[in-house]
């Protein structure tokens, strides 16, 4: 279902505070934005981003992964039911701390994007800032990419570089990269949505 406004219907998946989620929602406020956020989903009922989304008028749902144990497929089927109910067209991962199964990734092939706090293909996975500093890199950054079965391996849509300065710690670098993420993700999501039919 295409939204009557002509805007792409986006769901955001979060696990925590949702600062990137908030940036995406705020960027969709203008009437001429190419997307609207119609749903926020979390695997953690305590995720702070749920209240933030609701305060911005976005329907937010938690489907706690813990009662499902190791049964990722059934948990993801519950996520998919919510996505279907909201007629979602694009899924944006924003700090969603669960590895997705090939079933869900395949269901959203070419229509699920993620933000990662490194200049991929460098430093997929965790501890990206500490790894960049330890390697003596002169810059770090963030990447928006299409989600595929491989962890942080999908086609790159956009990147922003952030200099690593003398005395940087993983925490100080993370803060500057996060600020860059808040600028890059809304722009990249908008550009991506404009390419869709």
From TrEMBL:
GO molecular function terms noted in the UniProt entry: phosphoribosylglycinamide formyltransferase activity
Listed Pfam families: Formyl_trans_N
What positions does the entry give for (6R)-10-formyltetrahydrofolate binding?
A: 72, 114
Q: Which GO terms describe its cellular component?
A: cytosol
Q: Which residues bind N(1)-(5-phospho-beta-D-ribosyl)glycinamide?
A: 18-20
Q: In which pathway does it act?
A: Purine metabolism; IMP biosynthesis via de novo pathway; N(2)-formyl-N(1)-(5-phospho-D-ribosyl)glycinamide from N(1)-(5-phospho-D-ribosyl)glycinamide (10-formyl THF route): step 1/1
Q: Where is this site: Raises pKa of active site His?
A: 152
Q: Which reaction does it catalyse?
A: N(1)-(5-phospho-beta-D-ribosyl)glycinamide + (6R)-10-formyltetrahydrofolate = N(2)-formyl-N(1)-(5-phospho-beta-D-ribosyl)glycinamide + (6S)-5,6,7,8-tetrahydrofolate + H(+)
Active-site residues, Swiss-Prot/TrEMBL:
116
Which residue numbers delimit the Formyl transferase N-terminal domain?
Answer: 9-189
* Nucleotide-binding as UniProt keyword: no
Asked if the Swiss-Prot or TrEMBL record annotates the protein with the keyword Lyase, the reply is no
Identify the EC number(s).
2.1.2.2
Please name the top-level EC class of this enzyme.
transferase
- Judging by the UniProt lineage, the source's domain of life is Bacteria
SUPFAM superfamilies referenced in this protein's UniProt entry, alphabetically: Formyltransferase
Q: Which UniProt keywords apply?
A: Purine biosynthesis, Transferase
Return one Gene Ontology term, BP aspect: 'de novo' IMP biosynthetic process
Family (UniProt): Belongs to the GART family.
Q: What does this protein do?
A: Catalyzes the transfer of a formyl group from 10-formyltetrahydrofolate to 5-phospho-ribosyl-glycinamide (GAR), producing 5-phospho-ribosyl-N-formylglycinamide (FGAR) and tetrahydrofolate.
Question: In its UniProt entry, what is this protein called?
Answer: Phosphoribosylglycinamide formyltransferase
Q: Which organism is it from?
A: Brevundimonas subvibrioides (strain ATCC 15264 / DSM 4735 / LMG 14903 / NBRC 16000 / CB 81) (Caulobacter subvibrioides)
The encoding gene: purN
């Amino acid at each position: 279902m295409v939204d009557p406004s002509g805007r792409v219907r986006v769901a955001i998946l979060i696990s925590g505070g949702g600062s990137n989620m908030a940036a995406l929602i705020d960027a969709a406020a203008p009437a001429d934005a190419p997307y609207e956020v119609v749903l926020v989903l979390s695997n953690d009922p305590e995720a702070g981003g749920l209240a933030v989304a609701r305060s911005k008028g976005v329907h937010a749902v938690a489907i706690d992964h813990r009662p499902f144990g190791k049964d990722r497929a059934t948990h993801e089927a519950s996520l998919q039911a919510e996505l279907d109910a909201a007629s979602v067209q694009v899924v944006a991962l924003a700090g969603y701390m669960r590895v997705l199964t090939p079933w869900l990734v395949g269901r959203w092939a070419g229509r699920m994007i993620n933000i990662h706090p490194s200049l991929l293909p460098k430093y997929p996975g965790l501890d990206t800032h500490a790894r960049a500093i330890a390697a003596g890199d002169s810059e770090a950054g963030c990447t928006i990419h299409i989600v595929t079965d491989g962890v942080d391996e999908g086609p790159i849509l956009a990147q922003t570089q952030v200099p690593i300065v003398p005395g940087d710690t993983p925490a100080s670098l993370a803060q500057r990269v996060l600020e860059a993420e808040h600028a890059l993700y809304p722009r990249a999501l908008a550009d991506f949505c404009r390419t869709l039919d």
